[in-house]
Structure formats: C-alpha cells, structure tokens
Design goal:
Keywords: Membrane, Transmembrane, Transmembrane helix. The chain has about 160 residues and is mainly alpha-helical. It has 2 domains: about 1-35; about 45-165, no CATH class. Helix content is about 75%, strand content about 0%. The protein contains 6 helices and no strands. The protein has helices spanning about 5-15, 15-35, 50-80, 95-120, 125-130, 135-165. It is flat. It starts with a helix and ends with a helix.
Length: about 160
C-alpha cells in the first residue's frame, strides 16, 4: 500500500491497517473459544453472578464507564502538573510524568490481579487449596508498590543527574 493510501486509510479508519487486522484476529480467536467451550460454560443459571459472561460484561462496563474516565482525568491532571509543558524553562528538563505513571500502573495491575487475596476474600478456599493463609498478601503488595515507587524515584534521580551533565 502506498504511503498516500495508508494515510487516507488511517484518517478514515482512525488507526493503521494492522490495528484492524489484529482486531479481526482477536475476534476470530474469541469466536473459536466460545464455539469450542460452548455458551453453557460461560453462563451458570444456578449461581449467575459467578458466570464468566457476567464478570466479563461487568468488567467492560466498570472499566469503560468508571475506571477509564477516572484514570484519564488523573492522567490529564498529572500531565498538566508534571508534563513537559508545565513551567516551561529555558533549558529542557527530565519530565516526571512517566516516573509516576509506571509505578502507579504496577500498583493498579497487581492489585487488580490479586485483590481477593489482598483484601482477604475467600480465605477458606485459598487455605483448602494451598494450606496457606492470605495474611502476607497485603503486606507483600504494599512492599511491592513501595519498591516500584522507590525504584522509579531512583531512576528519576539518575536521569536528572545524567541530564545535568
């Protein structure tokens, strides 16, 4: 595809052709999984709130209507406060924004993955399956978040020192 046609495609579609190809491939994989597993495996009428379909729709709605606007707003505020355009100086400086974004992303994703254990939900099931308690999860998660922020702060200091020289 010529670069002019690719540019027209990107303007009309809103992304590159690779985006469309990957989206169609992911839809094909999801269709294959649903057809292989069957719809009955995704919906349990006896305990409907534990069904995969309910959790999937809930996650989409929660993310798209609540979480995405919330972290987009926080990111906008951070960019206004910490971004490269904040407080323009005569000499360029090392922007702080990504040094805040990355550990926050680490904290959010690890909390999302382990929140039942961090909040001590399902302790008896976890104990029956592993023979362990959920006590250390909160402390370990907090230590992980602290380490992520400390490492990010250290990398920021190093970047500032390298930028100065």
């Amino acid at each position: 595809m010529s670069s002019a046609r690719a540019a027209r495609w990107s303007r009309a579609y809103g992304a590159s052709g690779w985006h469309l190809a990957l989206m169609l491939a992911s839809l094909a994989v999801v269709t294959y999984v649903v057809l292989t597993v069957g719809l009955a495996a995704l919906w349990d009428p006896d305990v409907w709130w534990q069904s995969i379909a309910v959790w999937f729709v809930g996650a989409v709605v929660l993310h798209d209507l609540v979480l995405f606007p919330a972290y987009a707003l926080v990111d906008r505020l951070l960019r206004l406060r910490l971004g490269p355009s904040a407080g323009r100086r005569a000499t360029p400086r090392v922007p702080l924004l990504n040094y805040v974004r990355v550990p926050t992303l680490v904290a959010g994703l690890t909390f999302l993955l382990f929140f039942p254990a961090i909040l001590s939900r399902g302790g008896s099931t976890y104990a029956n399956a592993t023979g362990l308690t959920q006590e250390p999860f909160l402390q370990r998660w907090l230590l992980l978040v602290l380490a992520a922020y400390l490492l990010s702060a250290l990398l920021y200091v190093v970047a500032r020192l390298r930028h100065r020289t």
